Amino acid sequence: MLFREYIKGVGNMKEEKDINVIKDLKIVEWLKCELLSAVAHLFQVLTKGINSGREELLDILSNIILVSYLLGKRLGFNYEAMDLKIEDHIKLSLAEDHTIERWYGDLGELKEHLNINNRQE
To answer: N or C: which end of the chain has fewer CB within 10 A?
Structure first.
């Protein structure tokens, strides 16, 4: 009797794992669709011009960042790892004298905003 209950419990654990894998796959697919939809919406709004829907553009851009973080998390990356990778990209672009930095100084400004220097070891 005890053995049967154990086997039944193991079977339920397998079902739970199967359900979790399916749930994980579904959420990754959903996040991919959300990201693609947000980028498409961004392009659609930009065809009207930058000044026509500034609040809408801000909403879309922030949503793209949010969905990107959530997708990264579901793909096995923690938020800190993603932040560090962003910092690495900024530092590399600054070192390579990226055009957007030369023309506008955006990367340096973003570096200061993210306080990258304060987190260096």
So the answer is: C
